[in-house]
Design brief:
By secondary structure, this protein is mainly α. The chain contains 9 helices and 5 strands; from the N terminus they run H-H-H-H-H-H-E-E-E-E-H-H-H-E.
Length: about 250
Amino acid sequence: MTTPSFQQTQYEFTAHLRDPENNPAPEGIEDRRLGIYRDLLFNNIESFLSGGFPVIRSIYSDENWHRMVRDFFAHHKSHSPYFLEISQEFLTYLQDEREPQAEDPAGLLELAHYEWVELALSVSDEVIDMNNIDANGDLLTAHPVLSPLAWALAYQFPVHQMGPDNLPEQTGEQPNYLVVYRNRNDEVKFMEINPVTARLIHLLQEDETLSGQQALQQITQEMNHPNPDIVMQGGLSALQELQQYGIILGTN
């Protein structure tokens, strides 16, 4: 079937707004009027991405940044109409669609994911329900409950330290373990943790029947540690610190 003329005009209009250099404007529309829409839409997208990915923005020159945003705006097919989900769409674009460029820093995708996590947690509508949670429960004999607003992450690059003056070209020998969380004041923070604490969090998230002591005993066996008491003491300290920052809510 032939596309109605008004729809064809709409397609030409939106294609021009997304990529004016490669798509001519529909006939009969004053360029001054089109320019208002071109600038308004692109600037809104660019401003949102700059605010959502401030470290990445600071790494690129104006020219390279605007070229990347234009490519995203012109070619990515977003699946959500909501502004708050543009950052997720941009992350998908970087991971699946964008061809790597010479100006891209090593670790770009991990850095983008880390910055997206910060934004996602800041706008999350997840509600912490303290019903059936004992805020003063024993972290060793009961199961420590982790906040749904705390995400344990592992990156090959030190994303929490990256910036224009710190762009490592290669990964480190060990992963970087972080917990990114939203605290009681609705501020998004991060905590750098060691591999043992990361493993402890993973075990507690994986099995909701596991007590803190049982999780630490499993870690002791995995490490084949000669002194289990040291692991237990260090693990308890880690659990208490996580609770202090609201990453652990209490026990069930």
